[in-house]
Specification:
- By secondary structure, the chain is an alpha+beta fold.
- The protein has a single domain, classed as Gcn5-related N-acetyltransferase (GNAT) (Aminopeptidase).
- It is 32% helix and 28% strand.
- The chain has 5 helices and 8 strands; from the N terminus they run ββαααβββαβαββ.
- It has an 8-stranded mixed sheet, with helices on both faces.
- Strand 7 and strand 8 form a beta hairpin.
- The two termini are 25 Å apart.
Length: 173
């Protein structure tokens, strides 16, 4: 199911047919370094990961959407929203395979997701977290309008993460 689209991209719900792509994405060295090991080792694990995303969508009305290039329906990455137990606000996140970096896809998907979260879902505040050494993500978050707020430590993680935030009442998109 398509959630929304941009000039070059379609953001849609993941399906179990996307399991091979998800398996590749969540085991990419950049995912493992900056996001963490999700224990997805097989196509069946990837299907379970996808079903959890679908369940999140059914429960909260948002999740991490599969980002496809419109021209050829090639999956590029994930971008969307999550409500973590360890954060008060909804969190925007994204991850793309490295071969699609530097082409503006992450910016296009993340800025559209931020607009969707405010204009369609009615959220007033969006946050994002990054590791302290993930300069590329920090740069992109600032580019779409988020500002560094503080360091946070999630309950299940020893590492302090950078928390960025966007408040819709202080800026219009």
């Amino acid at each position: 199911m398509k959630i929304f689209e941009t000039e070059r991209l379609t953001l849609r719900l993941q399906t179990t047919d996307d399991a091979d792509f998800i398996l590749e994405l969540v085991n990419d060295p950049s995912w493992l370094r900056f996001i963490g090991d999700r224990g997805v080792r097989t196509v069946e694990d990837a299907r379970e990961y996808i079903l959890n995303s679908i369940h999140m969508y059914e429960k909260s009305g948002f999740c991490f959407y599969l980002v496809e290039r419109k021209e050829d329906n090639i999956p590029l990455g994930l971008c969307g929203l999550v409500k973590r137990d360890s954060l008060e606000d909804v969190d925007i996140g994204y991850a793309f395979l490295p071969k699609y970096w530097g082409k503006g896809y992450a910016y296009e998907a993340a800025s559209a997701t931020l607009a969707y979260s405010i204009d369609t879902l009615g959220l007033n505040r969006i946050v994002a977290i990054t590791t302290q050494d993930n300069e590329a993500s920090a740069k992109l978050l600032k580019k779409i309008g988020l500002k560094f707020e503080r360091l946070v430590q999630l309950s299940n993680d020893a590492e302090e993460l950078r928390l960025f935030s966007f408040n819709s009442d202080s800026k219009t998109l």
